[in-house]
Design a protein that fits this description.
2 copies of one chain form a homodimer.
Chain A (H helix, E strand, L loop, with lengths): L2 H11 L13 E5 L2 E11 H4 L6 H17 L4 E11 L5 H18 L3 E8 L4 E10 L13 E5 L4 H11 L5 H12 L5 H10 L2 E4 L4 H12 L2 E5 L9 H7 L4 H7 L6 E5 L1 H4 L6 E8 L3 E6 L2 E4 L5 H13 L1
Parallel strand pairs in A: 3-4, 8-11
Antiparallel strand pairs in A: 1-2, 2-5, 3-5, 6-9, 6-10, 7-9, 8-10, 11-12
Chain lengths: 319, 319
């Protein structure tokens, strides 16, 4: 079964949902004046962890990917929980590394661990859960025509780093380092998410790739989006790696997943008040669909991203 | 590595904990006047699911075991989340059954699902997460000398049902039915937990076996506990099954895990005000240790329960 079929199957049986229907980065419940935000994301070693990743990086990332979902809802993270599936033959040094990584991430994000559970399983599994509180909720459905589409930080380095590793590309350390940093040690945009809760109309984090997130945002908001290729903040080293592999750096940037940057929409009046680094990459329009505008004109943005990454990689790796 | 070694390893790296240190049924954070309570519990098909259990029962139980941990903290459950690990070859009817079971349990407990995540994994894994709110928190550390030790419902049927199935015992339907009901379809004591939050001094749910829970309660409260064997509310059919296998029904009742009954302590003055069915099984004393009192006198209660179940079963099955 495909993931989308599995999700449909469950949705048929899950009639009771929170005040916010399933489909956002996290779920939410009203608690008095505030929103309690909760999310969970499972990491399976076999499918989600490249060999090059240290156990400490694995543990840190299990926290980051959940904290990022809380941040993208405009919430302040308040607690973390995790369940472990541990194979009988996993060596204790590896497990200690995972524990150290989780501990460091909790320090980094200033979060307490509220509950933990360990079990025997066939593969190493870390199911992370993060909770947060928001004054005002940012969802994927609030974008309105006339607003600006923005993104924090830069994009493309996670996939470019993966490509360097996967293809054994020989690149300078100065090129590899920032790519590997993003590929192996991404960080969630907590401060930015909290700040955006005051001004943005919608937000989503880049888990699966900017192109896929933009399509989701446009569909859930019932709007169109136009992005200018030249405005994309393509990360340092992405162009070089794309060049070595004969790829379009814009496509690498649009397909790059697990960046944990925040994509958000904001009115032209409020954009001035944002006091962290970000890029305006396009605008929200009436109608529907996501378009990419470059010298060649305007075309539908390909739905590049994680679900399509396999095909995309096939194209990259075997063409 | 043993489970206790794994837990120690993680505790060394998890310095940041909630307002309630790890070690209770659930974690807790102060939210204004209330406590936010959160727990997670992973179910792995290979180790946690007997073949006789239907997929619907599996889904229902994944909710129940988490809701029970919320109830034992004296909290009202407010939301559920889950992560699935799904093997590629799992048939869709099985998965549909699990979804139906989760949906039915959410209806039964009146809970919304806040977030769900699906992944590919080698074995079917359901990591359930429940959230709750408490006015006053029930922990494992509040028992005081002079109080009564009580338990909701009855005990022993879950293990007796397991023994009937495991040994292929031929028993009347009238015996098997209540045993299988508890073994395969246990329910969490939500109403009781909320009511107890007003009067009890401590509580714990029976996940691993009454004996093990009593030892935990005594240790974490720094008290002793004396239980009268004749006061234990041993469930219907437990005696018969124990007899067929040459076992002591009291031992079966003390070792029976996943009962999801609540064990609690309460002062003699407040016990009168409790308006649901429960049994007074003993009392809290000074000193330390858990003792079982029967015609033979007073002896240390063996630490029967889930962690020791394997040995206990070995004794049962191969003696």
């Amino acid at each position: 079964m495909r993931e989308s079929e599995i999700i449909d199957l469950f949705l048929r049986h899950l009639k009771r949902q929170g005040e916010l229907p399933l489909g956002d980065d996290a779920g939410a419940l009203r608690l008095g004046e505030k929103w309690l935000v909760a999310t969970n994301d499972m990491l399976v070693r076999k499918t989600d962890v490249p060999d090059i990743m240290t156990p400490e990086q694995v543990g840190f990332k299990a926290v980051t990917m959940n904290v990022s979902d809380i941040a993208s809802m405009g919430a302040r993270p308040i607690g973390f929980l995790f369940s472990l599936g541990i194979p009988g033959d996993l060596d204790s040094d590896y497990l200690e590394g995972v524990a150290r990584g989780i501990g460091k991430a909790l320090d980094f994000y200033g979060l307490p661990v509220l509950s933990a559970d360990t079990n025997e399983a066939d593969d190493l599994i870390i199911d992370g859960i993060a909770l947060g509180l928001a004054e005002r909720l940012l969802t994927r459905s609030g974008a309105k025509p006339g607003e600006l589409v923005c993104v924090t930080g830069d994009i493309g380095r996670a996939l470019a780093g993966y490509l360097v590793w996967k293809n054994g590309l020989e690149v300078d350390d100065a090129v590899r380092k920032p790519l590997y940093e993003k590929f192996l040690e991404p960080r969630a945009r907590v401060r930015e998410g909290i700040a955006l809760s005051k001004v943005a109309s919608s937000a989503i984090d880049i888990s699966d790739g900017l192109a896929k997130e933009l399509h989701l945002l446009a569909e859930m908001s019932g709007v169109g989006i136009e992005v200018r290729a030249e405005s994309l903040p393509i990360g340092k080293g992405v162009e070089e790696v794309a060049g070595l592999l004969g790829l379009d750096p814009v496509e690498v940037a649009l397909a790059s997943g697990e960046e944990f940057e925040l994509v958000f929409t904001v009115s032209p009046e409020l954009v001035e008040s944002i006091d962290f680094e970000f890029s305006i990459i396009g605008r929200v329009t009436g109608g529907k669909g996501v378009y990419l505008v470059d010298e060649g004109g305007k075309r539908v943005m390909p739905r590049l991203g994680w679900e399509h990454l396999t095909e995309f990689q096939m194209k990259i790796l075997y063409s």
